[in-house]
Amino acid sequence: MKQNMRSNTAVGNSFRLQRTRLNNLLEAAAGNHRLIIVSAGVGYGKTFAIQDFVESYGASTLWMQLSVRDNVSARFWENYTHTVQQSNQLLATVLGELGFPDTPDKLNRYSVALETYPEEEKDILVIDDLHLIEDPSVLQFLSYLTSNIPPQRTVIIISRSTPDISLAKQYAQGQVSNFSEDELRFTENEIAQFFSQLDISLPPGSLQDIYRDTEGWAFAINIIARSYQKTSLYGGYAKDAMRATVFQYMEAEIWSGLSKNLKGFLVKLSLIDHLSINLIELLAKSDYEAILYDLEQQSAYVRRDTYMNAYQIHHLFLDFLSQKQGILTEEQRHETYKIAGDWCSNSGFKIDAMTYYEKIGDYDEIISIFTEQIPLQVPEDIGEFAVGIFERAPEEIYNTVEMFAPTYIRVVMCLGRWFEAIDLLMQYEEKYLQFPESGFRDRLLGGIYYAWGIMRRLTSTIDDIHDAHIYYEKMAQYWGHKVMPYCPTYVNHPNGPWISVVGSAREGSLQEFYDSLVITVQSLANCFYGALTGSDDLTLGEIKFYQGNIEGAEILFKRAFVRAREYNLFENLHRATFFLLRVAIHQGNFAKCEQALQDMKPILQQGEYQNRFIVYNIAVAQYFFFLRMPEEFPDWLKKECQPYKHFYFIENFENQMKLRYAYLSGEYHRILEYNQEMRQRESVLYGRVELFAMEACAHLKLKDRKSALATLKEAYDEAAPNEIVLPFIELGKDMRTLTTSALRETGCGIPKAWLEDVNRKSASFAKRQSHIISQYKRANHIEEKIILSPRELEVLTDLYHGLARSEIAASRTMSLNTVKMVCNSIYEKLGAENLADVIRISIEKKLL
Fold it and tell me: Would 734 disulfide with which of 80, 428, 604, 697, CB 3.0-4.6 Å?
C-alpha cells in the first residue's frame, strides 16, 4: 500500500509538470477570450488540467459535471441551477422557478434573470463532459448559454470531442480559444521529469520509444511507469493496444491492491452519479474516515473537487468499476440507491431521486416528492419524465401505494392529456369501489375524487357546468376530517389570472361558480387544514370588483388576506394584494398602491411558494400598465405571448400582461392576432371581456371606427348578462373616447344608458389615474414637460379667473360638451383630481 501511495503522489506531481506549461496558455486565453474549449480523448488529463488552472487563477469557480442523465432536460436544469446556487442563491431560485428554457419566451426570461441578478465578481463556469449530451433541447440551451456569456464570466468546456453546439457567433467575434490533444500531450522532456520523480532510470533510447508509442498520452505514461517499477524494462506498447488493455492494467495494478471494503465501496459509487462528500459520508456510515483516507490514496483515478464539494472518478476507472457491480448483493444495491435517493430528494435533485427510487421500487418516496416538492401545476419537463415512471410501474403498485393513481392522473392532466385523464378517473373509481372497505381504500378513493374535482374545475369553463364541489364532497366523505397533512405545493390556488374560471357569459354563471367554490373550500379546508381558505372571499370580491363595486370588493379582499395569512396560503395572499393594488388605482390612492407592492415583497422570501417571482413581476407590470409606462415592464413581459396551453396555467397570466404591454406600445396587431386565436377556443369570461374591450380601443387608434364599434358591441354582449363593467372603465380616456364615438352612432346596438355610464366612469377613472401617475413621477423625481394646446391654455386661464364651464362656453363660443372635454384633457395632463389641484400645479409648472 505504501508503494501505491508513493506512486499515486508522483503521478499527481508529474501531471503538474505538464500542466505548468498548459496553465500559462490557459491564463493567457482566459484574459483574452470568454469561451475556452478543451477537447481531447480519454486519459489526457483534461479535468485535472482545468482544476489546476482554476485553483491557480484565483477566480470564483462554478463546476458543472454532466452525465448521460443530463439528456433529460428537467434533470439537466436541476444540475445547472444547483451549480448556479454555489455562488448566487437568488438567481438559482428564480431559474428553478422558471424551469428548463425550452421556448423563446423562457430563454428571454433566462436572459433577463441573468441581468437582474448578476454575479458581483469575475468567475469561471466549467462545463465538464459535454460530449455526453445528445438531447437537442439541452444542446440548444448550451448554444444559447455560450453565445450569451456575461462580461464578468469565462466559460470553460471540457469534452472528448468537438462540442455539438453552435459556436459560429463566438468564433466570428474572436471569443473562443481551443485546446486539443496537442496541448495536453506530455512532451519528451516532461516524460523524463516524470520518471525522474519516480526514481526510475530509463535505459538509453527508452524515453524516445515511450514518447513515440504513447504520443504523450498521460494515462498510458502512468501505466508504463507502474510497470517499470516492477520490471525495470520497457517492452514497447502501441497506443491503440494500450487503450484496449487498460482494464487489464487496472485489474493488476490497482484493483488487486485494494482492501475488500474499499473495493465494495468504489463499486457502490459506480451505481450513482452524485458523489457529494456528504453523500459519501452517508454511504460509508461509521467507516467514513477510514474509507475517505483509502479513497484519497487513489489520487490518479479519484480526486476531491473543492468547487463541487464532491469526488470525481476518472472515466476509465469508473467504466472499470461498472464491470465489477456483480460483486454487490441485491441488499447492497438497494441500500445504495435508497441512501442516494434520500440525499437527492433532500438536496433538491428531484429527477435523480425519482430515478433511484424507481430502481428499488420505492414508489411511496416518489409520491412524497410530488406532494412536498412539486407544485400542483407540474412543470412540463418534469411531467414528461415522471409519466414514464407511472406507465412502467407494476399494476400492484396502483393497489398498494397511497395517492399513486391520483398523482398519475394529475401528471397526465398537467401534460394536457385531458381525455386520457378522464378515462383514468373513471377506470380507477370503478376499480377502487370494488376494494374491501378499509382506510386504505378510502384514502385512494378520496385521492381520485380530489383529482376529479380539479378536472371538473378545469372543464367547467368549457361545458358551463359548475359541479366540482360534488367531487370534493365525495373526497371529504372518504378522507374524513383533517386526515391529510396540508402541503402548499399540492393544494394551492390555480395559477391563472382569475379566481373564477367561468367561461360562459350566461347570466348567473359567476354566482353558480361561487356557490360551488364555497362548498369546495369547506371540503378542502376540513381535509387539508385550512387549504384554500379565503378563496371564497376572493371569488366574491372578484365578482363585485368586475361589476364595479369597488368598496364591497375591497372589504372582501382584505378579509381574504387576513384569512389566508393565518394558514400561510401564499398564492391567496398574493392574489388578494394584487386586487388591492387595482382597488387603490380606482381610488386614486398612490400611497395604497405603493403599500400593496410592499406587502407582496415579504412573500418573495417564501421558498415553498413556487411562482412567487413570476406573480410579483406580473403585479409590477399591472401597476405600470395603469401608470402608462411600458418601458418599466419587466423585460420578459415585453416579449411575444406564450403558446396557449390552458387558462389555468401560469403562462396565461403572463400573456395578459404581455398584451397590456403591446397595447401601451402601440403593437396593436399582437392583440388582434391573439384575440382572433382566442375566439376559436375556450377562454375565461373576465379575460375575454378585458381583451375585447382593449381590442375595440386598439381598432379606434388604428382609425378603424367600424371595427372598433363592432368589437365594443361584442365585448358588451359578453359583459352585460353578469353586469361586468370594470374592464371598460380601466381603459380610462381611451374608453371615454370610444364610448363618446359610440354615443354619436345610431343603431350601434349598445344601450345609450350603458354607454353614458361607462363614459362617465372611465373619465373619472382617467382623472384618478392621472393623479397617481403625477404622484409617482414626483416621488421618483421624474420630470415631464407639460404641453397644453392654445385652446387648453385659454380654458385654463378662464378656470384660474373663476369662470364656470358654462361661462367659458359662452365667452369662447364653444359648446358645453367641448369645454368639458378640454377640461378633462387639462386634468389628465396635469395629473389633477380637482380644480384646486389644477390651479396649484399650473402655478408650480409656470403655466399661468
Answer: 697
User: Which residue is listed with cell 472518478?
Assistant: 313
As a whole number of angstroms, the distance between CA 153 and CA 147 comes to 12
CA pair distance 548, 610, nearest whole angstrom: 32
For residue 832, the surrounding DSSP H or E stretch is: none
Nearest to 678 by CA among 708, 641, 719: 641
The identity of residue 763, as a single letter, is A
When mean pLDDT is compared across 284-288, 395-399, 549-553, the lowest value belongs to: 284-288
Helix (H, G, I), strand (E, B) or coil at 112: helix
Tell the burial category of 746 from Cβ atoms under 10 Å away from its Cβ (0-12, 13-18, 19+): exposed
Distance of CA 649 to the CA centre of its chain: 13
Tally of CB atoms within 10 A around 700: 21
The per-residue pLDDT for range 744-788, each reduced to its tens digit, is 988 889 999 999 999 999 999 999 998 899 899 989 988 777 788
pLDDT for the residue 528: 78
Rounded to an integer, what distance in angstroms lies between the CA atom of residue 580 and that of residue 558?
8
Q: Which of 677, 643, 678, 638 is nearest to 660 (CA)?
A: 638
User: What angle, rounded to 10 degrees, do the helices at 550-566 and 535-546 form?
Assistant: 160
Cα gap 281→292, rounded to integer Å: 8
Residue 153 parent element (H or E): strand 153-159
State pLDDT tens for residues 313-350.
Answer: 877 788 889 999 999 999 999 999 999 999 999 999 99
Note whether 49 and 112 are within 8 A (CB): no
pLDDT band at 18 (very low <50, low <70, confident <90, very high): low
Residue 708: other Cβ atoms inside 10 A: 22
pTM listed for this prediction = 0.76
Q: 403: which 3 cell numbers?
A: 395517492
Q: At what angle are helices 404-414 and 380-392 packed, to 10 degrees? A: 140
Cα angle, residue 474 at apex, residues 471 and 475 outer, rounded to 5° = 90
Q: Which residues contact 46 (CB under 8 A, 6 or more apart)?
A: 38, 39, 40, 158, 184
Strand 302-305 to 310-313 pairing: antiparallel
For residues 34 and 133, which has the higher predicted lDDT (pLDDT)?
Answer: 133
Terminal-to-terminal C-alpha distance of the chain: 96
CB 387 within 8 A of CB 411: yes
What type of residue sits at position 52? D
CA-CA distance, 605 to 90, in Å (whole number)? 10
Rounded-to-integer distance, Cα 678 and Cα 676, Å: 5
Which amino acid is it at 824?
A: N
* Total length of the chain: 848
The answer to whether the Cα torsion of 549, 550, 554, 557 is positive or negative is positive
Largest CA distance in the chain: 118
Q: Report whether 414 contacts 402 (CB < 8 A).
A: no
DSSP state of 37: E
- Name the phi and psi angles at 311, rounded to 5: -100, 150
Residue 589: φ, ψ to 5°? -105, 95
What's the Cα-to-Cα distance from 621 to each of 33, 220, 604, 632, 809, rounded to whole Å? 38, 61, 16, 8, 41
pLDDT at 482: 47
